[in-house]
Amino acid sequence: MSAEADTTRAPRLAPAVAAHHHLLLLAGDVEPDELETLVLSLVVGARWTTPPSATLPGVLDLLPDADRHSRATLTGPWAADAARDALGLPEWAETVVVVDVDPERSAPAPALAGGYGDLLDAFGLTHPEGLERQVLDVVHACARRLAGAVRTSTGVLLEPHPDSAVDLVVHAPTWLDPEALAHVLEPALPGLELMPGADAAAAEGHHLDGYGASWTDVRTSNDGEDDGAAHLAIDVEAAEVLPPALRTAAWTSGGVLSYAVRWAEHDRTPTARAGLRRRAGIRARIGRAALALHEAVGGAILDEDGFLVAPEQLAQELANDPRTPATYGSVTRRSCE
After folding, report:
1. Per-residue pLDDT band at 322 (split at 50, 70, 90)
2. Position 268 confidence tier, pLDDT thresholds 50, 70, 90
3. How do 168-172 and 193-194 pair as beta strands?
4. Phi and psi for 234 in degrees, rounded to 5?
5. How far apart, in whole angstroms, are the C-alpha atoms of residue 71 and residue 32?
6. Contact between 231 and 213 (Cβ < 8 Å)
7. Where does the chain show beta strands of DSSP type E?
8. Using the 8-state DSSP alphabet, how is residue 61 labeled?
Protein backbone atom coordinates (compact mmCIF):
# COMPACT_ATOMS: atom_id res chain seq x y z
CA MET A 1 0.00 0.00 0.00
CA SER A 2 1.22 3.50 -0.74
CA ALA A 3 -1.46 5.98 0.22
CA GLU A 4 0.35 9.25 0.82
CA ALA A 5 -1.26 11.51 3.38
CA ASP A 6 -2.95 14.35 1.49
CA THR A 7 -3.56 16.93 4.19
CA THR A 8 -5.67 19.09 1.87
CA ARG A 9 -8.22 16.29 1.46
CA ALA A 10 -7.79 14.35 4.69
CA PRO A 11 -10.88 14.28 6.93
CA ARG A 12 -11.03 16.88 9.67
CA LEU A 13 -10.57 15.77 13.25
CA ALA A 14 -13.24 16.75 15.76
CA PRO A 15 -11.46 18.23 18.84
CA ALA A 16 -14.16 17.12 21.26
CA VAL A 17 -13.63 13.50 20.26
CA ALA A 18 -9.86 13.61 19.87
CA ALA A 19 -9.31 15.19 23.29
CA HIS A 20 -10.20 11.93 25.02
CA HIS A 21 -7.68 9.83 23.06
CA HIS A 22 -3.93 9.58 22.82
CA LEU A 23 -2.85 11.12 19.50
CA LEU A 24 0.14 10.43 17.26
CA LEU A 25 1.14 13.66 15.51
CA LEU A 26 3.05 13.48 12.24
CA ALA A 27 4.39 15.74 9.51
CA GLY A 28 2.39 15.82 6.29
CA ASP A 29 4.90 13.84 4.26
CA VAL A 30 4.70 10.71 6.42
CA GLU A 31 2.84 8.10 4.41
CA PRO A 32 0.48 5.59 6.01
CA ASP A 33 2.61 2.71 4.81
CA GLU A 34 5.61 4.14 6.69
CA LEU A 35 3.60 3.95 9.90
CA GLU A 36 2.35 0.48 8.98
CA THR A 37 5.92 -0.76 8.43
CA LEU A 38 7.05 0.52 11.81
CA VAL A 39 4.04 -0.91 13.64
CA LEU A 40 4.54 -4.30 11.98
CA SER A 41 8.14 -4.21 13.21
CA LEU A 42 6.84 -4.17 16.76
CA VAL A 43 3.41 -5.82 16.71
CA VAL A 44 3.02 -9.24 15.15
CA GLY A 45 -0.28 -9.59 13.29
CA ALA A 46 -1.20 -5.90 13.09
CA ARG A 47 -3.00 -5.04 9.85
CA TRP A 48 -5.24 -2.50 8.22
CA THR A 49 -8.87 -3.57 8.69
CA THR A 50 -9.89 -0.45 6.79
CA PRO A 51 -7.19 0.78 4.39
CA PRO A 52 -6.65 4.54 4.29
CA SER A 53 -7.62 6.48 1.19
CA ALA A 54 -7.11 10.06 0.07
CA THR A 55 -10.35 11.16 1.70
CA LEU A 56 -11.01 8.61 4.45
CA PRO A 57 -8.87 7.52 7.40
CA GLY A 58 -7.75 3.94 7.70
CA VAL A 59 -7.95 1.68 10.74
CA LEU A 60 -4.74 -0.14 11.66
CA ASP A 61 -5.77 -2.87 14.09
CA LEU A 62 -3.05 -3.93 16.52
CA LEU A 63 -5.15 -6.87 17.78
CA PRO A 64 -7.19 -8.01 14.77
CA ASP A 65 -7.60 -11.55 16.09
CA ALA A 66 -8.36 -10.69 19.72
CA ASP A 67 -11.77 -11.02 21.34
CA ARG A 68 -14.06 -8.03 21.46
CA HIS A 69 -12.94 -7.16 24.98
CA SER A 70 -9.41 -6.31 23.83
CA ARG A 71 -9.23 -3.35 21.49
CA ALA A 72 -6.25 -1.38 20.19
CA THR A 73 -6.43 0.54 16.93
CA LEU A 74 -4.74 3.45 15.19
CA THR A 75 -7.11 5.48 13.01
CA GLY A 76 -5.85 8.05 10.53
CA PRO A 77 -4.54 10.10 8.96
CA TRP A 78 -6.76 13.02 9.96
CA ALA A 79 -6.00 16.64 9.09
CA ALA A 80 -4.71 18.42 12.18
CA ASP A 81 -5.90 21.96 11.41
CA ALA A 82 -9.42 21.70 12.81
CA ALA A 83 -8.11 20.53 16.18
CA ARG A 84 -4.87 22.53 16.33
CA ASP A 85 -5.98 25.45 18.48
CA ALA A 86 -8.35 23.50 20.70
CA LEU A 87 -5.79 20.80 21.52
CA GLY A 88 -2.63 22.90 21.31
CA LEU A 89 -1.10 20.90 18.47
CA PRO A 90 2.28 22.15 17.20
CA GLU A 91 2.40 23.98 13.86
CA TRP A 92 4.61 21.34 12.19
CA ALA A 93 2.04 18.60 12.85
CA GLU A 94 -0.14 18.25 9.77
CA THR A 95 -1.74 14.86 10.31
CA VAL A 96 -3.08 13.05 13.35
CA VAL A 97 -3.53 9.37 14.10
CA VAL A 98 -6.04 8.61 16.85
CA VAL A 99 -5.11 5.86 19.30
CA ASP A 100 -8.10 3.88 20.55
CA VAL A 101 -7.32 1.72 23.59
CA ASP A 102 -9.08 1.41 26.92
CA PRO A 103 -7.25 3.09 29.80
CA GLU A 104 -5.57 0.84 32.34
CA ARG A 105 -3.91 2.71 35.18
CA SER A 106 -1.80 1.67 38.13
CA ALA A 107 -2.34 2.49 41.76
CA PRO A 108 -0.58 5.74 42.73
CA ALA A 109 3.17 5.23 42.44
CA PRO A 110 5.56 6.75 44.98
CA ALA A 111 7.01 10.05 43.84
CA LEU A 112 10.57 9.86 42.54
CA ALA A 113 12.93 12.82 42.49
CA GLY A 114 13.90 12.14 38.88
CA GLY A 115 10.45 11.04 37.75
CA TYR A 116 9.57 7.91 35.78
CA GLY A 117 10.40 9.22 32.34
CA ASP A 118 8.47 11.60 30.12
CA LEU A 119 5.86 9.08 29.00
CA LEU A 120 4.81 7.89 32.46
CA ASP A 121 5.20 11.32 34.03
CA ALA A 122 2.56 12.59 31.58
CA PHE A 123 0.01 10.68 33.65
CA GLY A 124 0.97 11.89 37.10
CA LEU A 125 1.41 9.06 39.58
CA THR A 126 -1.21 6.69 38.14
CA HIS A 127 0.66 5.24 35.21
CA PRO A 128 -0.63 3.41 32.14
CA GLU A 129 -0.19 -0.34 32.42
CA GLY A 130 -1.22 -3.50 30.62
CA LEU A 131 -2.44 -3.10 27.06
CA GLU A 132 -2.59 0.70 27.24
CA ARG A 133 1.08 0.86 28.25
CA GLN A 134 2.06 -1.55 25.46
CA VAL A 135 0.21 0.50 22.85
CA LEU A 136 1.65 3.76 24.16
CA ASP A 137 5.16 2.32 23.95
CA VAL A 138 4.56 1.43 20.30
CA VAL A 139 3.11 4.85 19.50
CA HIS A 140 5.93 6.64 21.34
CA ALA A 141 8.54 4.57 19.44
CA CYS A 142 6.88 5.42 16.11
CA ALA A 143 6.82 9.11 17.05
CA ARG A 144 10.54 9.02 17.81
CA ARG A 145 11.44 7.23 14.57
CA LEU A 146 9.17 9.43 12.43
CA ALA A 147 10.19 12.70 14.13
CA GLY A 148 6.63 13.09 15.35
CA ALA A 149 5.00 13.58 18.73
CA VAL A 150 2.45 12.07 21.09
CA ARG A 151 -0.34 14.03 22.74
CA THR A 152 -1.61 11.98 25.64
CA SER A 153 -5.24 11.91 26.73
CA THR A 154 -4.06 13.92 29.74
CA GLY A 155 -3.16 16.78 27.40
CA VAL A 156 0.63 16.44 27.64
CA LEU A 157 2.65 16.83 24.45
CA LEU A 158 5.68 14.52 24.12
CA GLU A 159 8.18 15.15 21.32
CA PRO A 160 10.85 12.42 21.59
CA HIS A 161 13.89 13.49 19.62
CA PRO A 162 15.15 10.83 17.17
CA ASP A 163 18.65 11.11 18.65
CA SER A 164 17.35 10.07 22.06
CA ALA A 165 17.43 6.47 20.80
CA VAL A 166 21.04 5.64 21.59
CA ASP A 167 21.41 1.92 22.28
CA LEU A 168 21.85 -0.72 19.58
CA VAL A 169 21.60 -4.51 19.64
CA VAL A 170 23.16 -6.82 17.06
CA HIS A 171 21.21 -10.06 16.72
CA ALA A 172 23.11 -12.82 14.96
CA PRO A 173 23.46 -16.58 14.57
CA THR A 174 27.16 -16.55 15.48
CA TRP A 175 28.70 -16.75 18.96
CA LEU A 176 31.80 -14.78 19.88
CA ASP A 177 33.91 -15.85 22.83
CA PRO A 178 34.91 -13.00 25.17
CA GLU A 179 38.41 -12.74 23.73
CA ALA A 180 37.02 -12.58 20.19
CA LEU A 181 34.51 -9.92 21.21
CA ALA A 182 37.28 -7.77 22.70
CA HIS A 183 39.27 -8.14 19.48
CA VAL A 184 36.31 -7.20 17.26
CA LEU A 185 35.44 -4.15 19.36
CA GLU A 186 38.98 -2.88 19.97
CA PRO A 187 38.93 -0.32 17.11
CA ALA A 188 35.59 1.14 18.23
CA LEU A 189 35.96 0.68 21.97
CA PRO A 190 39.66 0.58 22.79
CA GLY A 191 40.39 -0.71 26.23
CA LEU A 192 37.19 -2.71 26.55
CA GLU A 193 37.08 -4.53 29.88
CA LEU A 194 35.56 -8.00 30.09
CA MET A 195 33.67 -8.91 33.21
CA PRO A 196 35.95 -10.74 35.67
CA GLY A 197 36.22 -14.42 34.92
CA ALA A 198 34.52 -14.40 31.51
CA ASP A 199 37.65 -14.80 29.39
CA ALA A 200 39.24 -17.26 31.80
CA ALA A 201 36.13 -19.43 31.89
CA ALA A 202 35.97 -19.51 28.09
CA ALA A 203 39.69 -20.27 27.83
CA GLU A 204 39.26 -23.24 30.16
CA GLY A 205 36.51 -24.62 27.98
CA HIS A 206 33.60 -23.87 30.29
CA HIS A 207 30.24 -23.32 28.66
CA LEU A 208 29.06 -19.70 28.84
CA ASP A 209 25.39 -18.75 28.59
CA GLY A 210 26.41 -15.15 28.33
CA TYR A 211 28.85 -12.57 29.58
CA GLY A 212 29.35 -8.86 29.86
CA ALA A 213 31.89 -6.17 29.24
CA SER A 214 32.19 -2.47 29.91
CA TRP A 215 33.88 0.51 28.36
CA THR A 216 34.65 3.87 29.91
CA ASP A 217 36.10 6.96 28.34
CA VAL A 218 36.36 10.60 29.32
CA ARG A 219 35.26 12.63 26.35
CA THR A 220 36.89 16.00 26.01
CA SER A 221 35.71 18.22 23.20
CA ASN A 222 37.89 20.08 20.76
CA ASP A 223 37.39 23.30 22.68
CA GLY A 224 38.86 21.68 25.77
CA GLU A 225 35.62 21.33 27.71
CA ASP A 226 35.21 18.11 29.65
CA ASP A 227 32.05 16.41 28.38
CA GLY A 228 32.12 13.90 31.23
CA ALA A 229 32.86 10.21 31.31
CA ALA A 230 30.96 7.87 29.00
CA HIS A 231 30.10 4.43 30.29
CA LEU A 232 28.94 1.71 27.94
CA ALA A 233 27.74 -1.77 28.88
CA ILE A 234 27.98 -4.69 26.48
CA ASP A 235 25.90 -7.77 27.20
CA VAL A 236 26.13 -11.01 25.21
CA GLU A 237 23.48 -13.67 25.64
CA ALA A 238 21.09 -15.96 23.83
CA ALA A 239 17.92 -14.18 22.78
CA GLU A 240 15.09 -15.94 24.61
CA VAL A 241 12.42 -14.01 22.72
CA LEU A 242 12.80 -13.22 19.04
CA PRO A 243 12.15 -9.53 18.32
CA PRO A 244 9.10 -9.09 16.06
CA ALA A 245 11.24 -7.30 13.46
CA LEU A 246 13.21 -10.53 12.92
CA ARG A 247 10.33 -12.99 12.82
CA THR A 248 10.67 -13.66 9.09
CA ALA A 249 14.49 -13.80 8.94
CA ALA A 250 15.53 -17.31 7.87
CA TRP A 251 18.86 -17.15 9.72
CA THR A 252 17.07 -17.06 13.08
CA SER A 253 15.88 -20.68 12.82
CA GLY A 254 18.98 -22.07 14.51
CA GLY A 255 18.90 -19.71 17.49
CA VAL A 256 19.87 -16.09 17.96
CA LEU A 257 22.60 -14.44 20.01
CA SER A 258 22.23 -10.82 21.02
CA TYR A 259 25.07 -8.35 21.44
CA ALA A 260 23.66 -5.30 23.22
CA VAL A 261 25.69 -2.09 23.37
CA ARG A 262 24.03 0.30 25.79
CA TRP A 263 24.79 3.71 27.22
CA ALA A 264 24.83 3.22 30.98
CA GLU A 265 23.12 6.48 31.82
CA HIS A 266 19.49 7.26 32.54
CA ASP A 267 19.31 10.85 31.24
CA ARG A 268 18.94 10.46 27.49
CA THR A 269 17.34 13.86 26.94
CA PRO A 270 19.89 16.57 27.67
CA THR A 271 19.03 20.12 26.67
CA ALA A 272 22.32 21.95 27.15
CA ARG A 273 24.77 22.08 24.26
CA ALA A 274 27.45 20.09 26.08
CA GLY A 275 24.97 17.32 26.89
CA LEU A 276 23.71 17.12 23.31
CA ARG A 277 27.28 17.01 22.03
CA ARG A 278 28.13 14.25 24.47
CA ARG A 279 25.10 12.19 23.50
CA ALA A 280 25.95 12.58 19.82
CA GLY A 281 29.47 11.34 20.46
CA ILE A 282 28.21 8.32 22.37
CA ARG A 283 25.69 7.48 19.64
CA ALA A 284 28.50 7.53 17.10
CA ARG A 285 30.67 5.35 19.33
CA ILE A 286 27.87 2.82 19.77
CA GLY A 287 27.16 2.94 16.03
CA ARG A 288 30.76 2.06 15.20
CA ALA A 289 30.73 -0.76 17.73
CA ALA A 290 27.51 -2.18 16.28
CA LEU A 291 28.89 -2.02 12.75
CA ALA A 292 32.04 -3.88 13.81
CA LEU A 293 29.96 -6.56 15.49
CA HIS A 294 27.65 -6.88 12.50
CA GLU A 295 30.60 -7.26 10.16
CA ALA A 296 31.96 -10.06 12.37
CA VAL A 297 28.80 -12.03 13.15
CA GLY A 298 26.23 -10.96 10.53
CA GLY A 299 22.56 -10.91 11.47
CA ALA A 300 20.74 -7.62 11.96
CA ILE A 301 21.01 -4.41 13.97
CA LEU A 302 18.01 -3.15 15.96
CA ASP A 303 17.70 0.13 17.78
CA GLU A 304 16.44 0.41 21.33
CA ASP A 305 12.83 0.63 20.14
CA GLY A 306 13.16 -2.62 18.20
CA PHE A 307 13.31 -1.10 14.71
CA LEU A 308 15.75 -2.41 12.12
CA VAL A 309 18.79 -0.27 11.40
CA ALA A 310 20.31 -0.60 7.93
CA PRO A 311 24.08 -1.14 8.33
CA GLU A 312 24.78 0.62 5.05
CA GLN A 313 22.86 3.72 6.10
CA LEU A 314 24.43 3.74 9.55
CA ALA A 315 27.90 3.47 7.98
CA GLN A 316 27.07 6.30 5.58
CA GLU A 317 25.84 8.54 8.38
CA LEU A 318 28.98 7.88 10.40
CA ALA A 319 31.15 8.53 7.35
CA ASN A 320 29.41 11.82 6.63
CA ASP A 321 29.68 13.02 10.20
CA PRO A 322 31.63 10.57 12.34
CA ARG A 323 30.57 12.15 15.63
CA THR A 324 26.97 13.08 14.96
CA PRO A 325 24.82 10.61 13.01
CA ALA A 326 21.48 12.38 12.49
CA THR A 327 19.30 9.31 12.91
CA TYR A 328 19.52 5.59 12.41
CA GLY A 329 16.47 5.64 10.14
CA SER A 330 15.39 7.39 7.03
CA VAL A 331 13.46 10.16 8.77
CA THR A 332 15.53 13.20 9.66
CA ARG A 333 13.03 16.07 9.76
CA ARG A 334 13.38 17.74 13.11
CA SER A 335 16.79 16.19 13.76
CA CYS A 336 18.19 18.21 10.88
CA GLU A 337 16.63 21.50 11.85
Report:
1. low
2. confident
3. unpaired
4. -120, 125
5. 20
6. no
7. 22-26, 47-50, 58-61, 72-79, 95-101, 149-151, 157-158, 168-172, 193-194, 210-220, 226-238, 257-263, 300-303, 308-309
8. E
- Per-residue pLDDT tens over the stretch 162-206: 889 999 999 999 999 999 999 999 999 999 999 887 777 767 777
Give the C-alpha separation, 101 to 15, whole Å: 18
Distance (Å, whole) CA 60 – CA 46: 7
Written as one letter, the residue type at 192 is L
On average, the pLDDT of the chain sits at 87
Tell me whether strands 257-263 and 168-172 are parallel, antiparallel or unpaired.
antiparallel
- CA gap 207, 135 in Å, rounded: 39
Measured distance CA(130)–CA(137) in Å, rounded: 11
Q: How many CA atoms lie within 13 A of 242 on its CB side?
A: 18
- Alpha carbon distance, N-terminus to C-terminus of the chain: 30
Average pLDDT over residues 84-95: 96
